[in-house]
Specification:
By secondary structure, the chain is an alpha+beta fold. It is built from two helices and three strands, in the order αβββα. The protein has helices at about 10-25, 70-80, and strands at about 30-35, 40-50, 55-60. A three-stranded antiparallel β-sheet has the order 1-2-3. Strand 1 (about 30-35) and strand 2 form a beta hairpin. The longest helix has 19 residues, at about 10-25. The chain is globular. The termini are far apart. The relative contact order is 0.14.
Length: about 80
């Protein structure tokens, strides 16, 4: 588990800014994951500039663990990013 940021609101805004930039520059990025109208996390493709590579990432609220949502989201992200694979 990653350490909690000093200011969670500032960290959230920074993440949103990074993800928005990714969509603009590369036409992909993480998606919000919703269940029954409630945000339960995020997942998708994320460019990691330090490595010059793209990762599949996900983060779910603990109440949503163990239901296959991360697996489903990862498969959807791979299908989106690599439709011919």
């Amino acid at each position: 588990m990653l350490p909690a940021p000093a200011d969670p609101l500032e960290a959230a805004h920074a993440a949103i800014d990074r993800y928005t930039k990714g969509w603009r520059e590369r036409s992909y990025g993480p998606w919000g994951l919703f269940r029954e109208g409630r945000l339960i996390g995020h997942a998708g493709l994320n460019f990691v500039p330090e490595f010059g590579e793209t990762e599949v990432l996900w983060s779910l609220h603990p109440e949503s663990w163990g239901h296959g949502f991360a697996t489903e989201a990862a498969r959807a992200a791979l299908d989106f990013g690599f439709p011919d694979a």
